[in-house]
Write a structure and sequence with these properties.
heterotrimer; A alpha/beta; B alpha/beta; C alpha/beta; B: four-stranded antiparallel β-sheet; C: alpha/beta; four-stranded parallel β-sheet; 4 strands; globular
């Protein structure tokens, strides 16, 4: 785990030297399972800053909500750093206005898995590199970290920030990038019928609260296609047509833009799996165009860089 | 009337009810519980110390509901929903209270919602009191409680191997016909359990003068502070048992007019046709949500429009907590109004 | 399958050079083919394709100009990148890949569109009716211009 005091010192320095107007990070929430994204504007505020593996949101989602020209400092993990890069590529924020405090990430703990494991009323969570100690109503539990990691974090291959201005903590080993590919291939090995059955089962729980959209840093459109009235692209209600269209198009709009952070899935109040959709798209982008989102702040995503060279790909 | 219901007898009882009723009770859906109609076999009575993910308001106000079917040439007919008599079993008192609160909106003297009315009339609610405090709830704080009996047909109290059934309507009495009457001692025992559960619920915030404080600080920067990290999704409102906003949409391709759940946390909720939005940012929308529950409900029906079920706390993706928001509101300046 | 498969045809308005072919597409399409003409294949939003599929199309055919012959220079290739991926994606969630077909039409070709449609229809017949993702009501016949 990175030293929290070093992160705090760096955040304080940024604010007191006037390098940034606001530092984006987490503060302790009302309950131990839910740290809250917070905006630190003065060095004194920074005392509240926390860093833990329960910080489940992708902070980059707030970048497009702050004024475009504002100078922002951010505590970023691997996926957040890539999301920032993707936003810079899409000219939503200038990299010059950002100061990234990088932290190598050991994976986000899924609070739902914790509750499933230890029961209600979690009083405290203490983590070390390998294990997590949870205190709940029914007692103390020592659980292996791996068992509590969020699904998308188990497949993560770039835990380290790629372009942070300062890195706090030792970089971790880059993990096996085949894990995401295997997950996609495993799903594709199912028959058409089984795949659709799975998709339908997941999509039909949707209540269309759009938490996935709001939690996603790349969903920054002023008007989303589902909010569009003329023409109305999809059915408006919680009907099969409407819910399926939402899940298909939401994911498809992330093609070449998704960083596999899994924030959508963690935000979902109905535990709907979504990363099996975006992982497929990411997998295809890598196979077809050798593109991975956010590894740098220059390369445009495949759908934005069409060239006539493609003709050789498409001619039969 | 008070009855004793052995826990072992419950699955059979539920099946007996199935002959005359659609029985809805919480069942496992993936990793959470959800009100679903009881199937012929495999009854599992779930006794988790917290409520279902989707509140039972969905049984009375479905997420999407057809109101009118129309043809291309101007003809239309009202949609008919076949609603069978039904029993909603093991809903929690907070959710039952919420349904009663919603009655004040859907069943007004002058205008009442026919779909809501029909569903309400054909439903018998059998609640299961919470003998164990749930994690994020705060029902006692807002004036209700783990054994709140408002507007129920029957209430179950868990007493180990059996439930004490208290019935409050004739319809419910017939449902429990044939069960042994409870003795005085058992009733006292149940009262103790109920009182203990009530006392175990922590007080999350003070409600005294809360209305005045929120009302008089309409333009305070308090709202900026509490809405800062809000994402603007609809989790809190969609999962809220007392949120009832809906949007009526014409689905032209299906030739139907439908009613969908809507949320005041959405940008499009208050967006006007001119393009003007009276609640342009999440600050105003958060203010609306909180004020509706803790100010406007009080103005309209003199009840707090929050039953303390804790869903918004538990499922908020950024860990925003209404309890802490309202605690912060306690320090707001206010003047006692003498009007009332 | 007794019934002919329903095909949604998205046609770029520039891709049929021969007036006879265009006339056939505009006025003499068989009733199982539902035509949507677009200014360029680049205008075809994946949502159009999705709506056709949800509305019960057994197959979707997208006809466009050859690479380097696009009226708007790269419209066809942009569309191809996106729609090809969209097709793969739909296949991932259970709409068979063969049900979406792209055809490049050479400006010089004559009667190609008829041949391509016939071949596509034959293949769709083997696949049978589309069952997955069909969740939306069909637009009734005779209402195409409503």
């Amino acid at each position: 785990m990175p030293d929290i005091e070093v992160i705090k010192a760096e955040a304080k320095r940024l604010l007191s030297e006037g390098m940034v107007e606001v530092v984006l990070a987490f503060k302790a929430g009302e309950t131990p399972l839910h740290p809250q994204p917070a905006f630190f504007r003065t060095p004194d505020d920074v005392d509240e800053l926390v860093y833990s593996s329960l910080n489940q949101n992708n902070l980059a989602t707030y970048l497009t909500r702050l004024p475009k020209e504002s100078k922002v400092g951010m505590v970023v993990r691997g996926c957040e750093n890539r999301s920032v890069n993707a936003l810079v590529v899409e000219k939503q924020k200038s990299r010059d206005n950002l100061y990234l405090i990088g932290v190598p990430c050991e994976g986000i703990l899924d609070w739902r898995k914790i509750v499933a494991k230890v029961g209600e009323a979690v009083k405290s969570v203490n983590e070390s590199e390998q294990e997590v100690m949870v205190e709940s109503r029914s007692g103390y539990y020592l659980v292996e970290r791996k068992e509590l990691l969020h699904d998308s974090c188990m497949r993560c291959s770039h835990p380290n920030p790629v372009s942070a201005d300062i890195l706090i903590g030792e970089p971790l080993a880059e993990s096996d990038s085949n894990l995401a590919r295997e997950a996609v291939e495993e799903f594709e090995a199912l028959s058409v019928k089984e795949r659709y059955a799975w998709f339908r089962k997941e999509a039909e729980r949707c209540i269309r609260c759009y938490a996935c959209r709001e939690a996603c840093p790349m969903c920054y459109c002023t008007e989303c296609f589902v909010d569009h009235i003329e023409p109305r692209w999809t059915e408006s209600g919680a009907t099969p047509a409407g819910m399926q269209a939402w899940h298909i198009v939401r994911a498809f709009h992330q093609t070449g833009r998704c960083t596999s952070c899994g924030a959508c899935e963690r935000a979902c109040p109905m535990d709907i799996k979504m990363t099996y959709l975006t992982e497929k798209l990411n997998h295809d982008m890598k196979e077809k165009y050798n593109f991975e989102t956010g590894l740098d702040a220059q390369t445009k995503p495949p759908f934005a860089t069409v060239t006539l060279d493609d003709k050789n790909r498409f001619m039969v | 009337m008070n009855f004793i219901l052995e826990k072992q007898a419950l699955p059979d009882l539920l099946q007996t009810w199935r002959a005359n009723f659609d029985v809805y009770l919480p069942q496992n859906l993936e990793r959470f519980t959800h009100f679903m109609p009881l199937a012929a076999e495999g009854v599992t009575v779930i006794n988790e110390p917290h409520n279902t993910r989707i509140p039972p308001k969905a049984l009375f106000l479905p997420m999407t509901e057809t109101l009118v079917k129309f043809t291309r040439f101007g003809g239309y007919e009202n949609a008919k929903h076949e609603i069978e008599p039904r029993i909603v079993f093991a809903l929690r008192p907070c959710d039952a209270q919420a349904v009663q609160l919603l009655d004040t909106s859907f069943l007004q003297v002058k205008y009442s919602d026919p779909f809501w009315l029909e569903r309400r009339e054909k439903t018998i609610t059998v609640a299961l009191g919470c003998h164990e405090p749930c994690d994020n709830g705060f029902c006692t704080t807002v004036g209700y409680g783990p054994f709140n009996k408002a507007d129920l047909d029957a209430m179950l109290t868990d007493l180990g191997d059996f439930y004490l059934v208290e019935t409050f309507s004739e319809a419910a009495e017939t449902c429990f016909n044939g069960f042994a009457n409870a003795s005085e001692t058992i009733c006292v025992q149940a009262l103790e359990v109920q009182q203990r559960a009530h006392d175990q619920m922590p007080v999350a915030f003070e409600t005294e003068n809360l209305k005045e404080k929120l009302e008089q600080n309409f333009s305070s920067n308090y709202w900026d502070k509490v809405s800062l990290s809000c994402l603007g999704c609809g989790v809190c409102t969609f999962l809220c048992p007392t949120c009832f906003c809906f949007d009526i949409v014409d689905e032209t391709q299906r030739r139907e007019r439908v009613r969908n759940w809507d949320s005041c946390m959405f940008r499009t909720y208050s967006l006007e046709a001119s393009g003007h939005n009276p609640r342009p940012s999440r600050v105003e929308r958060t203010r609306q949500r909180l004020s509706h529950k803790y100010v406007y409900w009080l103005d309209q029906v003199n009840q707090i429009g929050c039953t303390g079920c804790g869903r918004c706390v538990r499922y908020c993706p950024v860990g925003l907590d209404i309890r802490s928001m309202l605690r912060q509101a306690q320090s707001l300046p206010f003047e006692v109004s003498h009007a009332s | 399958m007794a019934e002919k498969p329903g095909i949604a045809l998205f046609q770029c308005q520039w891709c049929l050079f021969s007036p006879a072919d265009q006339d056939w597409v505009d006025n003499h399409l068989p009733s199982n083919i539902y035509l949507t003409k677009t200014p360029c294949t680049g205008r075809i939003n994946p949502l159009y394709v999705l709506n056709a599929i949800q509305g019960g199309a057994d197959g979707v055919m997208i006809s466009g100009c050859l690479p380097e012959q696009c009226h708007f220079v790269t419209g066809n290739i942009t569309a191809r990148r996106q729609l090809e991926e969209f097709n793969d994606f739909l296949n991932h969630i259970g709409y068979e890949k063969q049900r979406v077909r792209f055809v490049w039409l050479d400006l010089q070709d004559r009667c190609m569109i008829q041949k391509e449609l016939a071949a596509f229809e034959k293949e769709l017949k083997c696949l049978g009716k589309a069952a997955n993702l069909v969740t939306r009501m069909k637009v009734a016949e005779g209402e195409q211009n409503a």
